[in-house]
Amino acid sequence: MNEAQRARAIAWFVFAAVTVAAYGNFYVYDSIGPVADLLQRQRGFSDTQIGMLNAIYSIPNVILVLVGGILVDRFGAARMLFGTTAVCLAGAALTALSPGFATMAAGRLLFGIGAETFNIATLAAVAEYFTGRNLAFAMGLNLSISRAGSFSADMSPAWFAKAYAGGWQPPLIIAMLIAATSFAAAACYFWIDRRAHAKAKSDAAPTAQPFRFADLLGFGPAYWFLLILCVLWYGVILAFRSTFSIKYFQHAHGLSLAAAGEMNSYVFLAAVFATPAFGWLCDRIGRYAPMLAFGALLLPIAIVIMAATEWSLWIATVLIGVSFSLVPAVMWPLTSKLVAPSRFGTALGLMWVIQNAGIAGANVAAGWLNDRAGASAQNPAGYQPMMIFFGVMSALGFGFALLLWLTAGRRRHEALPAVGEAVPSNMT
């Protein structure tokens, strides 16, 4: 095996390990939605408390994920991935084994402390081992397989029916065991990375870079428009799809728990196949901005269809699935093109600091709106304020996607300020 073949083999081994770890991480995050109704019936949790179980995941990352991104730049993806999966496993265990809401929320808090830095380390690992025309494809394929974890969580009421028949706790114990597989996969990546760098003639690990707050001010306008889009778009996707959509489908559209989970899961099933395809397309044609705007537009359209029409839920589900496939397939490779490689972790960390504030706020606001309007199976109209809230947020996200497109087209020289390269003409 020559050196190039060896490098490709190592890259794909790394890809496999970090992707298995990410699959488990996504499963654990989405394990709350399928048990939301059980938590309400068996433990008396309100919608505000259920929303808080996902909101509290994001709360520490309003600050800590920026620190995590800096640490990834400083110490490398392998070390940080290994450490954060250990924290995530501890959080999943505390959530599953907790006797009350406070300790369950503490487990979700601990999981959140590790999970977002884990996600940055995952993208940094892929960016380190894949370059050039394969980067968007590799990131898209990683995201697609990772989201199979969310699909699996949504399908878990059907796949693990006996566990759900046993109440709220057995499904969360399954999530804890899946978190343990993530930790094992991260340990494999750490081992592969150490051996790869030890055998290299020169150390290929990321060079430690001192952090300066001025670095945060050096990102151009296109990056900031992308950041705001990221906050608004993910705030809607994760607060609706991961927390309230299954209950909404049950109460407002009359689906059973299993049918609602299955319907919700198709968003991620579509992403499993479509995200790497969109990533491959981005690698080939490079038209990031218009593709991003189109993907952002589909989300408010889907919200309106669900809330204001009698159309089949399949239509809205397909639109959300395409949006959920296309936007991340473009967003993360585009971020890597807007900043220097040595600041990629910091740039992601800053995006996710504000993103997590948005996700936490969206979860709490949606839960409060539902409680205030008395949303329930007996009062499905009570979900309308939440849907209006999500519709406005997603429409604003599309507006910032348009601003990004206009900025990239008008001021192409700003797209790569950190490395001093011009934006390719096909970016717009």
Can you walk me through this structure?
It is built from 16 helices and no strands. By secondary structure, it is mainly α. It has a single domain, classed as Growth Hormone, Chain: A (Up-down Bundle), CATH 1.20.1250.20. The C terminus is likely disordered.
Gist of the model:
It contains 16 helices and no strands. It is mostly helical and 428 residues long.
Please describe the structure with a list of short key phrases separated by commas or semicolons:
single chain, 428 residues, mainly alpha, Growth Hormone, Chain: A, 16 helices, disordered C terminus
Uncertain runs with pLDDT below 50, 5 residues or more? Answer: 201-206, 411-428
**Superfamily at the CATH H level?**
MFS general substrate transporter like domains
SSE string, helices as H and strands as E = HHHHHHHHHHHHHHHH
Number of DSSP helical runs: 16
In helices, the fraction of residues equals over 70%
The structural domain count equals 1
Beta-strand percentage range:
under 5%
Shape: globular
Global structural class? mainly alpha
End-to-end CA span: 41 Å
Name of the CATH class: Mainly Alpha
